[in-house]
Amino acid sequence: MIFLFTVSLERWCRLRGNLLFYFKSRDPWSEPIGVVVLEQCQVRLDPPNVSTSLTADSQFPFYLVFDGGLCQALAATSDYDRSSWVQAIKAASYEGIRAELHALQQCIERKRSHRPLTDLHMWRIQRQHMLDMSELPLCEVSLACDNLLCDGHGRPPNPTLVVDVYMASTKVWVQYARTEIIERSSNPGFLSTVSFRASDGLSGESRIRFTAFDVRERVSQTAIPLGSACVLLSAIQDSNRLRIPLLNRAQTTVGFLTISAWALESEDRGNSTEHTPCRIPAATNHQVLSHRRSQSLPPRLGVKMRFPNQAELKLLFASPFLQTYRFHSGLGGDICVHELMAESRLCFAFPHQLVGIWIHQEKELLQEVAGMGELREPWHSRQVELLDRHLHLLRLYSQARENLQAHKGSYFKASSRRSDRSLEFAPINLHLQRMWVHNDTLNKSGFYDWITVGAFTAHSHKSKNGGLIKLVQQLKESPTRSSANYQIATKISMANDAIQAIKQLRKEVVEAMKTLMRLAKEKQTVGMLPICEDMIKKTRILLSLWDPSLVEEALNFIEEHKLLVTDDSGVGEDFSLDSSGKHSLILSPFKRITQQLTSLDLKSPDIDDFATPCTPKTVEDVWKIQECEDTSNESVHSSSDFTNANELINGSEPKSLDPDLGRMFLDTNEMSSSPSANYYKPTDEPEPWDLTQLNIEASVMCLVSKVKFLCGRCGSPAVRLRQNARGSRRTVITNQPITNVNKDGKPFETNKEGETLTQAVNSVTKVIKNGNKFTDGLDINKIADWVAELRPSMRKLRQAMDGLLKTARLTHSVFRVQQDPKAAQRVCNVQYRRDVCFSQALTSLISGLMTRLWCHKPDPAFIICLSTLGPLACFECLLSYHGDEIDMWGDMSVAVEDLRTVMFTLNRCPSPASSDPHPMPKIMGNRNSLTVSLPVPDALYTLIPSKQTITFHVTPVFFNIGINEMATLAESIGATRPQERSNIDNYIRLNEYYLRYRKLNIPELSLNSGRISACSPQRSVGELVEELKISVHSNKSKNVEILHLAAQICRQMKGLRFTSCKSAKDRTGMAVTLEQCQILASEYHLAEHEFQRALDCMRSEGCRRENTQKNTNVRKYAFNSLQLLTLPKSYRPPAGTYGSAQT
């Protein structure tokens, strides 16, 4: 009883938590008349001031003083009651409870020897130790319990086991592993196993503690300890099966723990490939079928079990996470499973290379426009706007390249950073998911790989426009609204295609000249004539690439609108007067931009060829190199090979570029000083198109005639490159002694120019009429140096092809200036977004290809696929066609489609050197024709036929099915038609690939991983393709059967598997684990009643749960209750593994 005094009234009080209720009577069912919240107050025995003091006799007062100054006076009837109330009120506030919790935590820490409990991951980080996948564990154990006590109501526990190891070096217990939770079982057999490794500091003397917990609530992981047992690791190793009691704190037995241990040996012994039956010695192979699963493992597990060899994995991947299991086979055997997840080392390194290609291409486009010189209005403002646009793109690409290069830390981009624009070219959450399976009863093992990655999309470019697939479609349709815009767009496309073709043909001609020089140096005539014939064919193609009317149109435009420049000050003839009447010398906007470029550090590649804007003062300042440069280490740009050839042709040794020179980005007066001279100077007069063609003809005719002369064919006539087969516009120009006119009948601008063309025409025509005069007067017996004899002709041909490329670039830039600025800006925006998505897609594809080449044993059948068809890449995606994910689907569709344009080559890579232990693919070319050089190990390279260079393209297929609540909404409103059409189109492509693959006649036995008669019959690829056809044309809701069939077809045709969703974390985790269990069931006889248990175990304890921790620091899948109800049943995570988390 306590008295509450305001006017000395007696009240009855009741304390509940931090609430003090007071009543009028002692009736326990009466309503309270008030409440005092006991927060932010102090309990005092002395009054805070005189006015609140209580002086009544037989009363024992105390006071509640609140922070705001309010005071409540209370009194009890005895000193004992007052002490009891004061103590209870002090403990009632949250501050008191928090203080008590802190005191208990400190007590626990003291009992742990002042060290917190450390898990294995943190232990390895503290020791700076990474898991080595090639390390053979000391032993592996499987755990089971029996006779665990039930609770007071007779209900069995929900047991899980925690394994702790005592590290004697630091005197601390480390949580080494834990098992899955088994629902309602007193005799659980756990599916996850534990491997003990010496690299973690373990030895035979290490103490291992096993603690059994009863998990009362799975969401919060609330559990109470049942009992524990402690043994030495040596005791586990020495005994095949160890059964020990579990003791509680009172040292009472609460159940028993059975530890089954086995040693491991490398899978290499007696194995040819991972997809052939394992040949185990007979001594270890008998009686395997007779064991029972009740104790989780067969009686004779003291024998050595297989351990997969994954030594090459560390060359390409980092930060591996490994989880091991043992599942029950329907035939009475056991299935050993190793599940691995690792980060790709290419995640940031490869996009860094790719962005360098785009930087180089933007430099070329900038140089084209600047090389035109300054134009008059109305084209001057468009030219400046075009320059400014390319400059902005260069800054974006350069900053992205710097960010990729500066990235430190893990080798993956977490899903929480997907909107971070600084790393937008890197794929999201890129990991290798690998499963190794071994069924001892079936004598069979195999590797299965997935590349899991977030959707290839530009998350930072938030817009609800349908993604790239809609944007690209709009660009194709928009020019039709205006015939002028459509014509300009067509001319730009034609000009760009011609430039790329010229560069490629020029590169091939230069390669032929280099071969001729080598043969001439050795005076070997064998092989020289076929090379000449090939050069003639390529030169004919060069001369037929351009429509002369386009070139004439561009040259007329330059002549009409170019602003004449008298010096290099940037001041043209149309300058104005200032206020004093003097000429104003303010620089034009064009010149200001070009001067601004000189201070821009673009982080260009270390070796920029002659096509880059960095042009040195003299050739000698730039080309300084050692002699030997392997062709496999060529520059990333196609034109660099030509530069190296220039040095051979000009009589000097190959040289290299000093990257510190030529920091001036764009010097239009120095451009033509380059050895290759790809661009006109603003003060240059463009060379007439006919003269360019004649120069190429004359130089090729001269070179071929001299080669034939050296080969002993002195009487061979000169070759005519152009045939009179296309009417008057394509007739060969004949002698024109009187009138200086071009082929269209128009007089030339100057007499000098006309005389030059007439002389060239007369010389070529005279040669054709009067026989071959290129070799007249030559005596083969007096020619000691064949190289010196051929070099002048090669130099002329090189200069003539330079002139051709100059005119082509000038034509291209003219049409680009005429393009509508708004249309050009839209094209620019779409291209940048496309580059972002393509970079993510290509990086993921390269990771998959490198995994197949380096982390699998050499497979001749796969080499046949590479050399004939190219591999199949199956992209499985779980995006919903609703909301923001429509854009992601559109972006990913185009990015996957763009992968078809990339060409891959295989190059031999010996054992990695100590200086660069990680094999790195190299990328060359431009947006329209990228070539990726893939290094391959010696073991695989020996399977390639001798003297054969394997080049191939990948066939990508993309299937998408939404599975969450947004997919349910999209299907209910009938909005998924584009997705369904896309799946049908990709089925058609997959079927075409299958028809070509079937002609290879690869035996089904190799496809089915060496299955023997004990295995259940597998459906053939043809049957699966027919089932897929039916599925893609059906209207079934959330038809995930499409994804399952496509995955099986891909595996059987030796394809690459990719699985994605928005962030490759939650839905991807469900899809990958489901596919893993389907493989175990179909190919390794996982027992039917074990399927759901195995699936839940992989999702709760496996790699995908760890992936959520790495991305969001929350070890839960980000599904809510609504999403869980809408997911297909096979895609639902087990209880306790999902909840509110960052998506």
Automatic annotation (TrEMBL):
Residues 116-246 form the C2 domain. One of its GO terms (molecular function) is phosphatidylinositol-3,4-bisphosphate 4-phosphatase activity. Residues 634-659 are annotated as: Disordered. Its EC number is 3.1.3.66. PROSITE patterns: C2 (PS50004), PH_DOMAIN (PS50003). It comes from Ignelater luminosus. Pathway: Signal transduction; phosphatidylinositol signaling pathway. Residues 634-649 have a biased composition (Polar residues). It is an enzyme of class 3 (hydrolase). InterPro entries: C2_dom, C2_domain_sf, INPP4, PH-like_dom_sf, PH_domain. Belongs to the inositol 3,4-bisphosphate 4-phosphatase family. Keywords: Coiled coil, Hydrolase, Lipid metabolism. Residues 495-522 form a coiled coil. GO terms for cellular component: cytoplasm. This is phosphatidylinositol-3,4-bisphosphate 4-phosphatase. Pfam families: PH (PF00169). Residues 10-94 form the PH domain.
